[in-house]
Every structure is written in structure tokens, then in C-alpha cells.
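Hi R.,

Here's the chain you asked about this morning:
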Amino acid sequence: MIVTRDWLLTEAPASRGQAAWGRRYRLWLQFRRNPLAMVGLIVILALNVLSLLPPWLAKHKTGEQD
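And here is the predicted structure, written out as C-alpha cells:
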């Protein structure tokens, strides 16, 4: 893990791809330091997971009417 982090945070990247991944990693580190952003991310992920559950929770099919 340390080797990967060092590779991402190097001052002189060896390729454009390494530089791009380094920018993304630095952006993630900044995002992770913001508690409100992390709460928002957790809420969005929870809503996405919950949106996948209705087919297994519903007792009736969506097209059926009584």
C-alpha cells in the first residue's frame, strides 16, 4: 500500500496516466477530509442501495392491480 501511495504522490510522475491518477488521489484526500461531504456521500450511496431493494421487498408486481 505504501508503494502505491508513493507512486500516486510523487512530485515527478513518469507518465500522463500516473499524473492523472495522482490528481484523482489528491482530490479524494481533500474530499475525505470534509465531514459534510462524507455524510453526503454515505447518504447518496445508501439511497442507491435502497433503490435496488424494492423488487425483493414488494409483495406484488408493479403492473398488477386489485
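One quick note: The chain has one domain: 2-56.

Cheers,
M.
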